[in-house]
Design goal:
Number of strands: 8
Bound molecules: 2-phosphoglycolic acid
Strand content: 5-15%
Strand order of the largest sheet: 1-2-3-4-5-6-7-8
Number of helices: 11
Structural class: alpha/beta
Length: about 260
């Protein structure tokens, strides 16, 4: 089945509100015509309201980079899904930087996914192995376990709102990317197959799975040419309007109808 490609720019801790708005005024006209690709930007919490206001009439969707699973409460520094909901469509959870620096666990990723779906929003669930796991040949088992844990308790009918991003940690921000073929193989055997084990073939076939890790205009075509890769979660290259627009154009051309 045809899956609409989704390109999400994860700005991480970059772009203050004024910079983000200036950037979008440059970027939005460059990518607004590519309606066969879902286009998403993920600014930091502080910048979300300014970005949502700037994009109110735009086809570009907004994502948060994280959320807490509780509705409210004594969680200093955290932001709930309810607070985010008016401003966003997507929330990235389980990013390897959150797993590495903020003690994000599989159990919390699952709580967050449930809270996001219950609020009618869409999680982008990031999974991926470390270099050591990759070299030890543990990638498929590890990624399968991450996917299984993240999806526990999520109902069949909620799965159409789930996006999964396979991002090998050794490829994030390093300039090293997995080969398109290798990424496709892991996505097929560890991500799509795990979804299929739990939810059956038609949901496995429908769910969108991104690749992430040093995606840039020069390697985008290689990833988009793969049957199981439905877009990209992009850090560094999403901070540059020309690069981001090139990624959208390539996705539209390679995957488009
Ligand atoms: P990168 O980041 O494109 O800079 O490697 C990807 C990510 O962390 O989502």
């Amino acid at each position: 089945m045809a899956r609409k490609p989704i390109i999400a720019g994860n700005w991480k801790m970059n772009k203050a509100p004024d910079e983000a708005v200036a950037f979008l005024r440059e970027l939005a006209p460059m990518i607004s015509a590519y309606s066969n690709v879902e286009r998403v930007v993920a600014p930091s919490f502080l910048v979300l309201t300014a970005v949502a206001a700037e994009l109110a009439e735009s086809p570009i969707a907004v994502a948060a980079q994280d959320a807490h699973w509780a509705e409210n409460g004594a969680y200093t520094s955290q932001v709930s899904v309810n607070m985010l909901s008016p401003f966003i469509d997507y929330i990235i959870i389980g990013h390897s930087e959150c797993r590495a620096y903020l003690n994000e666990t599989d159990a919390n990723v699952n709580r967050k996914a449930q809270a996001i779906l219950a609020a009618g929003r869409k999680p982008i669930i990031a999974v991926g192995e470390s270099l050591a796991q990759n070299e030890a040949g543990e990638t498929v088992d590890f990624v399968r376990a991450q996917v299984s844990a993240a999806l526990e308790g999520i109902r069949h009918e909620q799965m159409t709102d789930v996006v999964i991003a396979y991002e090998p940690i050794w490829a994030i921000g390093t300039g090293k990317s997995a080969s398109g073929e290798l990424a496709d193989e892991i996505i097929r055997t560890a991500v799509r197959a795990t979804v299929g084990d739990f939810y059956g073939g038609s949901i496995a076939d429908a769910i969108r799975i991104q690749y992430g890790g040093s995606v840039k205009p020069s390697n985008m075509e290689e990833f988009m040419a793969q049957a199981n890769i439905d877009g990209a979660l992009v850090g560094g290259a999403s901070l540059d309007a020309d690069d981001f627009a090139a990624l959208v154009e390539i996705a539209a051309r390679v995957k488009g109808p």
